[in-house]
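Quick note —
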Amino acid sequence: MLLECPSRPRAALRMSPPAIESFRLQIGGDRIAVELAVPAAAKGVVVFASGAAVARPSQRFVHAVMHRHGLATLRFVHSAAAPDRKHTEPAPDRLLDALEWLQRHERWERTGLLAGGTAAHTALQAVALRPACAGAIVLGAADIDPAAARRLRVRAPTLLIVGGRDDELLPRNRELLRQLHGEKRLELVPGAGRRFEEPGALDAMAQMAARWFADHTEGAAAA
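Predicted structure written out below.
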C-alpha cells in the first residue's frame, strides 16, 4: 500500500516535559550510554536505532512528536571514547540487548523500532534474529538493498517513509516494500527530499511514524 499525506505542520500540543534518565547498559563487554525519555502515561516505547554525538534540532523534534503521542523514546548516546563521531549505529546485538532490557524491566511488553538511512538494515537484522523483540518498525529514507530484506524475512508491521522528491531512494523503497513480509506500507512526504528538510516535511514524517507506532505497539507502562 502506498499513501501520500500532506506535509502541513501540526499545531504543538501543550504537555508536561518527559522524565529523562541517562544511564549505561551493560551490553556484552561494553557499557553503552543511552537516554530514556518517558512522557506521562506513556503507553509504549520507541527505540531509535541510530543516534548522534550531538542531538540535532531535527532529532529532538522527532522525539518530541513521539512524546506527544504517548510514546517513550530510548536512544543511544555517543561514546565518550569517540567524541568526534557524528553518528552511532548500534549493531543488531546491541539493539536486541536494549530491547530485551526494556522487556525484562516490565515497563512495556513490546516496543517499536525506528531507523533511517543505512541503519535500516541493522534494524531489520535485529528483528529477523528475534521477531518478538519489536511490535512495529518504521524506516525513514531507508538505504538498503531490497534483496537483503527478502533474505531476512521480517514479518513485523513495517512502515517505509520516503520523500516524494527522493528520486534515488523512492524506487528502491518501492522494491523493498514488495520484499517485506507481513503488514507493510509505504508513505510519501510530498515535496520532500532525503533529509525531510523542507518546511513541514519533518513534522509530516514524524507524525506518520508516531501514528504507526501508536497503532501497532502493544503494552502499557507499568504502574
